[in-house]
Amino acid sequence: MASSSSSSSTQVKKITLKAADGKHFEVEEPVAMEMETVKSFFVGNEDAMKDMVVPLLNVSSEHMPAILDFYRNHSEFRKRTPPPPAEEVKAFNEAFLENKSDEQLMEMIMAANFLNTKELLNFLTEAAANRIKNKSVEYVRAFFGIENDFTPEEEARIRAENEWAFDGLDED
Amino acid sequence: MMNSGTLTVREKNKKFKGAGGRKKRTKNYVCNDSRSWADLSVDLLDIISNHLNLTEFLSFSKVCRNWILFSLTSPQRRSLVFCISTKAKKSCYLYISTEFRYKTKLPNFAGNFCIGFSNGYLIMEDRLGNVWVINPITAHQIQFPPMAKPCIAARQLRNAASKSPKGGNALRRLWGWRRSCFATFGPRGDFLVIFLSLYHRDVMFCSSKDNNWKVYSFAYQSRNIVDIVVYNGRVFVATDDCRLGALNLGSSNDSQTGVLILEYSNLKFLNGKTPLTRA
């Protein structure tokens, strides 16, 4: 948590966000405004900020600290005048994804989608795509816990489709 | 690349209507269990699939029903356009609509000619009459024996054509193959490459069964072939007297080779006019 160091004249405004399971999070205004969903909540109603609790129905409290951390760091990266070296951003992003299971990743994608932040959403979906890349259909199914809901005939037909795009002509 | 902006906005507004009566919603809200990767919404699948390349995307669409349904409506599913620069050294570009561009590197590409695109394969030829097909996605190649009749005149024409700016058109009109097809068929993965030349009035073909070039000339026949297509291992032709036929390639005996006209009534080409026959 970034301390509320009142840098210039006014105290940094805080906004209270309520996660899906009811937990409250106090967030500095600029960080909260990274989320389009929160931002649009206050459009034309700026006075409400002080005492309004913003409900985030699709975000569980489990992921809130990580998500807020992402916003804080990335808004800081953006503000820095010589932009930070790519390695630093990359290192942060990699650390962010470390120890995240696929389930957690998916929940965070849903959360980012709900919060409507392009940067986080883009980053997370790329991570998901990276986990699919160069993997067989069976692997992807097993990896993400997706049930094969095709009948054997459908499966065979689908497999034969676009065969030209895959290695070799006579691959079985 | 991100073409999902509008979708996300719509999603947000929808959610916000619900947020008005949020007490009710929070109660009903179940945090887990109802979510799985298979049930991801279309806009999320869209964003994820934007990070995949073409092969990965095709593979991605085979995972489950929800994902294949998504892929069928995705813009990535639209037609593929190849763009091969005349100065291309090793690579060509693939476009899907205007949103996606892929670059593919191919061996033996420089200085050679792409004379057709068929069944997912580029049909390539070099100046010596060697012919091969190559899959631009997987780089899978099939080499054919050198052509029985490497056409010297054609090559001279081609050289001349490459020197004059308008040469490309002249080349196509005078010499170029009207149609080149490559097809695979049968359980053993047999394949066939076939060229129709309007200028020479012949069909050249080579199949994996006999691995040799053969020529069927229709120069002295009563009807000319104006186009060919290969389907299920059979060659179908359109003739200049507005008929469709099947071309028998004569697996062993050349005397069998010929066009067998299929009788369809009321067949009309180009508003009843005879299709272009002159080379």
UniProtKB/TrEMBL annotation, chain A:
Is RNA-binding one of the keywords UniProt gives this record? Answer: no
Coiled coil region boundaries: none
Outline the subunit composition: Part of a SCF (SKP1-cullin-F-box) protein ligase complex.
Q: Could you tell me what this protein does?
A: Involved in ubiquitination and subsequent proteasomal degradation of target proteins. Together with CUL1, RBX1 and a F-box protein, it forms a SCF E3 ubiquitin ligase complex. The functional specificity of this complex depends on the type of F-box protein. In the SCF complex, it serves as an adapter that links the F-box protein to CUL1.
Q: Name one Pfam family in it.
A: Skp1_POZ
Task: Family membership, please give it.
Answer: Belongs to the SKP1 family.
Residue ranges annotated for the SKP1 component POZ domain, each copy included: 13-74
This protein's pathway: Protein modification; protein ubiquitination
Taxonomic placement: Eukaryota, Viridiplantae, Streptophyta, Embryophyta, Tracheophyta
This one is known as: SKP1-like protein
Instruction: For this UniProt record, give its keywords in alphabetical order, as a comma-separated list.
Output: Ubl conjugation pathway
Tell me the superkingdom of the source.
Answer: Eukaryota
Q: What organism is listed for this UniProt entry?
A: Dipteronia dyeriana
**Biological process, per Gene Ontology:** jasmonic acid mediated signaling pathway; protein ubiquitination; ubiquitin-dependent protein catabolic process
Residues of the SKP1 component dimerisation domain: 118-165
TrEMBL record, chain B:
Q: Which InterPro entries match?
A: F-box_dom, KIB1-4_b-propeller
Q: Where is the KIB1-4 beta-propeller domain?
A: 101-254
User: Which part of the chain is the F-box domain?
Assistant: 37-67
Pfam families, A to Z: Beta-prop_KIB1-4, F-box
Q: What is this protein called?
A: F-box domain-containing protein
